[in-house]
Amino acid sequence: AVNGSRLWQSLMDMAQIGATPKGGVCRLALTDLDKQGRDLFVRWCEEAGCTVSVDRMGNIFARRPGRDDSLPPVIMGSHLDSQPTGGKYDGVYGVLAGLEVVRSLNDMNYVTEAPVEVAVWTNEEGSRFAPAMVSSGVFAGVFDLDYGLSRADLDGKTMGEELARIGYAGDREVGGRKVGAYFEAHIEQGPILEIEGKTIGVVTDCQGQRWYEITFTGQEAHAGPTPMVRRKDALLGAARVVDAVNRIGMKYGPLACATVGLMQIHPNSRNVIPGRVFFTVDFRHPDDTILAAMDGELRAEVERIAGEIGLESDFQQIWYYAPIKFDESCVAAVRKGVERTGHSFRDIVSGAGHDACYLSKVAPTGMVFIPCIDGISHNEVEETTPEWSTAGCEVLLHAVLDRADA
Amino acid sequence: AVNGSRLWQSLMDMAQIGATPKGGVCRLALTDLDKQGRDLFVRWCEEAGCTVSVDRMGNIFARRPGRDDSLPPVIMGSHLDSQPTGGKYDGVYGVLAGLEVVRSLNDMNYVTEAPVEVAVWTNEEGSRFAPAMVSSGVFAGVFDLDYGLSRADLDGKTMGEELARIGYAGDREVGGRKVGAYFEAHIEQGPILEIEGKTIGVVTDCQGQRWYEITFTGQEAHAGPTPMVRRKDALLGAARVVDAVNRIGMKYGPLACATVGLMQIHPNSRNVIPGRVFFTVDFRHPDDTILAAMDGELRAEVERIAGEIGLESDFQQIWYYAPIKFDESCVAAVRKGVERTGHSFRDIVSGAGHDACYLSKVAPTGMVFIPCIDGISHNEVEETTPEWSTAGCEVLLHAVLDRADA
Ligand SMILES: NC(=O)NCCC(=O)O
Ligand SMILES: NC(=O)NCCC(=O)O
Fold it and tell me: Which parts of the sequence bind Zn(2+) 1 (chains A, B) (predicted)?
């Protein structure tokens, strides 16, 4: 009952904005390209008869009225921003599957009882501005508005400034309204569904996350005449922490994940002993107790390594959320949708964070996963298939109808 | 017999060009600031009655005629470019001590038998463009002109383009002429003279160097849903090499130096497993056999580490020169200069590379070191004293006279 080829075509059209030579997308949050992507989405929504509004965090809501428009809306959504080496589906799929649900309802001249909305959440990736999911977090009251608007990129530009610059600093209040239910469709971004040959993942939980920022300060000195024993090499310290982070991830495996993704070396010159290194750590686990144990080990390792080299260290946990359980009735709605459409499925825990994690704080929430090839995401070669894409959208439609007509 | 306060004032004047808040200098090779430094030097030399010429590598020569101007010149010199976090003396001291020798000869109305020149060598630091000492290398015939002009910075701009842009692509042939002797004064950049309380280092040797560029390629993937055992984390590989480089340096200590100074992480996003890392290695030792042993260990470690993580590796040695012995008669001229001026001294091996290393291939060469505070260089806090600066210049004057009047 959805038009899978229209959905696929929209995915391909959106993927041209910020397209990279390797077939991926680079559309960082609140850049000119992000604005282009938003503008295209807004145009499509208006063509589909929706009313579009933007809140002060730049979150976009496209509303299709219900029979009883005073009922709280059922919202579908995800994000349009990408990683620097992002794919065509991460986030975009959830947004455009939502739009396809609206277009399909239009095709059927079907009016839901409650209104239906498609949402685009600002800066979900957490790549240009940390942390991730910041604007759905403000919507859910997890962060306050000032915190959200003051998030800065590595050049010091804030989200507030950049929203204004691209014309998406809306005037609508962020959150503070009742949401009937929230459903997010997304590629799995991991290998499980594909390995097990399942088309749909019924997401029951999300693992918890802790993000850190660490700065080691030593002393810049000449790589030639400075004896090894007199050095305070900040990069040597950071390198040892990278290895320790990996050890911690392996130790609490197979479910733990531990990553250093970003590092900046100062002054970054071949014949200068690095005097300062800034780097980040990303820890994840579905069990909050284990996530806390990983945190403890990291703190001990950073202190030990800084001590052995003679570095000053600045250690900040900049983000934390505990593992999340989705609403049972929304999970059931997704499962019912799978049964009605007849796709193969399994229950699954999300390895990535999603706007749904924060929405679950203020609304009954569920998620639909579809497989991606080789489990690869945050990579330009990220790929899924039109069949999986259509299947996920069908399940989304059924889950939404289950709640919007309840 | 030299004017130490004039020399110090010139050092302070030059240090204003590219001055940093922490008291250092950032005047990278062939930038607009480098042009400003060169222009100031040229003006000072013309005011001192010298004739200035520039060769195709942008090397500048300021000539003071001798009584027999057909004799090969005695050249003093060093460089005006700096590290990103450079000091006020590294290079500049050797150039301006040379200028002060010329000014002192003018004050005394003294005409040397052979002509005397002050040289500024282009891109000695090897920071913006690798390797170091590239233009004195072309002068000495170690590199050919095309190699020199085609060295590119990390943005792909070449030395040839940048020389033309700042107006220092001269028309003089590079090298190919007889040099009577070459003397370079420099801060030690290490701790030995200061620790032993000596004012002058008579440089007898320079340690050899090997520079490498390594690229590890793994696979970008999502930091959340990608199990530890499926990862090909290029930064984990680079981190293990940083630790191995340090181990190799310690193992062949106390004279070995081993440094990773530069690293670029791709895509450098907090929640993306790094797919590609480019980094450099700088190895030094005064004994060529040990330098070769360090090279062998590095190659083995890089191969082992790439293998254990499943990374592709590209490994290039981009620079090598064997340890250098300076000319005995020039070393003796420096030593005689120390005796005449009565300063305390010791023989010393240079830990850094200098343009003198390449000049020694085509001319009898010697070097004069003065101490720097705490042995710190390639750092904005780099410092020496007016007394040491004057002493080094006195010794330089005597060494030059010893050869120019021989
Ligand atoms: N889905 C997704 O890629 N989210 C980014 C935030 C995270 O790293 O979990
Ligand atoms: N003197 C000096 O700092 N030279 C730079 C080249 C090197 O690293 O040895």
Answer: 79, 90, 186
CA of A313 relative to ligand 1 center, distance in Å = 27
Which ranges of A19-116 does DSSP label H, i.e. alpha helix? Answer: 32-47, 92-107
d(CA A161, CA A182): 29
The helix/strand/coil state of B394 is helix
CA distance B314 to B299: 11
Place of tokens 């690293």: B263
Q: Which CA distances in Å does B190 have to A363, B3, B208?
A: 64, 26, 16
Decide if pLDDT at A385 tops 90. yes
In 3D space, the residue among A233, A385, A209 whose CA is nearest the CA of residue A309 turns out to be A233
pLDDT at B144: 98
Positive or negative, the CA dihedral A79, A81, A82, A88 is positive
β partners of residue A209: A284, A321
Distance from CA of A240 to the nearest CA of B (A): 7
Q: Determine the Cα–Cα distance for residues B210 and B294; give it in Å rounded to an integer.
A: 10
In 3D space, the residue among A351, A290, A292, A350 whose CA is nearest the CA of residue A326 turns out to be A350
The answer to whether B88 contacts chain A (CB < 8 Å) is no
Q: DSSP code of A60?
A: E
Count of Cβ atoms closer than 10 Å to residue A374 Cβ: 16
Query: Nearest-CA neighbor of B269 among A246, A149, A125?
Result: A125
Peptide bond into A267 cis (omega under 30): yes
Q: How far is CA B70 from CA B75, B106, B180, B322, B384, in A?
A: 14, 20, 11, 34, 38
Quick one: average pLDDT of B255-279?
A: 98
What pLDDT, on the 0 to 100 scale, is given for residue A44?
Answer: 98
Q: What is the pLDDT of residues B57-91, one digit of tens each?
A: 999 999 999 999 999 999 999 999 999 999 999 99
Check: pTM over 0.85? Answer yes or no. Answer: yes
Q: Residues B141-179: pLDDT tens digits?
A: 999 999 999 999 999 999 999 999 999 999 999 999 999
Whether A87 is in the pocket of ligand 1, judged by its Cβ within 6 Å, is no
CB B262 within 8 A of CB B378: no
Alpha helices in B208-284 (DSSP H): 234-251
Tokens of A44: 């499509």
Q: Quick one: closest CA in A to B254, which residue?
A: A227
- pLDDT 10s digits, B277-336: 999 999 999 999 999 999 999 999 999 999 999 999 999 999 999 999 999 999 999 999
Give the pLDDT score at B253.
83
As a whole number, mean pLDDT of residues A358-383 equals: 98
- In the 3-class helix/strand/coil scheme, how is A160-178 assigned residue by residue? HHHHHHHCCCCCECCCCCC
Residues 6+ apart with CB under 8 A from B308: none
Q: How crowded is residue B169: how many other Cβ atoms within 10 Å of its Cβ?
A: 18
C-alpha to C-alpha distances, A107 to A104, A352, B186, B355, nearest whole angstrom: 5, 34, 80, 77
For B112, list phi and psi in degrees, rounded to 5. Answer: -75, 160
Asked whether residue B378 is marked as a ligand-binding residue, the answer is yes
- Cβ of A273 within 8 Å of Cβ of B261? The answer is yes
Residue B215: beta bridge partners? B278, B314
